[in-house]
Design brief:
By secondary structure, the protein is an alpha+beta fold. It has one domain. It contains four helices and six strands. The protein has helices at residues 6-15, 79-88, 114-122, 132-140, and strands at 25-31, 48-55, 58-64, 69-75, 92-97, 145-147. Strands 4-3-2-1-5-6 form a six-stranded antiparallel beta sheet, with helices on both faces. A hairpin with a 2-residue loop joins strand 2 (48-55) and strand 3. It is globular, with a radius of gyration of 18 Å.
């Protein structure tokens, strides 16, 4: 029988042993946005980035926009189907795993941009990375991320060309 009393739920969860957090898969997506004229100075195809974080068939989209951050959770799609969908819509997709561990200490204050939010979600310290193109190159040079093509199977050890 489940209790609707939050206090009872809190008491029961504090006595249970906490399970280790499972590995979170991340899709980092890059796209061409032209709503703002100043975005045109950025590399075409790499004018905005956002990410999809999850495991199995449970995912959360985190899309940092100019006026708000959109967060949407959903389930029922595999990583392969998500990659296929995003590639069909013209986006560049990198697949990898979110870095585990505590957030790094001593992070510098930075402008609140799509790149900075994605870096924080990935627990990535890359102080020289400011644009989506720089983030793309940085992630491709890390062992944790690979470029995805629509027709290829996605595995963590897959090495693809950029």
């Amino acid at each position: 029988m489940t209790s609707l009393d939050p206090g009872a739920q809190a008491a029961s969860t504090t006595t249970e042993k906490r399970q280790p957090e499972s590995t979170r898969r991340v899709l980092v997506l890059f796209e061409n946005r032209t709503e703002r004229s100043w975005l045109r100075v950025l590399t075409p195809g790499f004018r905005h980035c956002f990410c999809v974080i999850g495991a199995g068939s449970h995912w959360t989209i985190v899309d940092p926009l100019k006026s708000r951050i959109e967060v949407l959770s959903f389930s029922g799609l595999s990583e392969r189907r998500l990659v296929s969908h995003y590639r069909r819509t013209g986006r560049v997709v990198l697949a990898g795993e979110a870095a585990a561990g505590e957030p790094r200490k001593g992070l510098l204050p930075r402008p609140l941009t799509c790149v900075e939010i994605v870096k924080r979600l990935l627990n990535l310290r890359a102080p020289g990375v400011f644009t989506p193109w720089q983030l793309h190159r940085t992630l491709l040079n890390s062992p944790s991320f690979v470029a995805c093509r629509q027709s290829q199977e996605i595995t963590p050890d897959l090495v693809l060309d950029a």
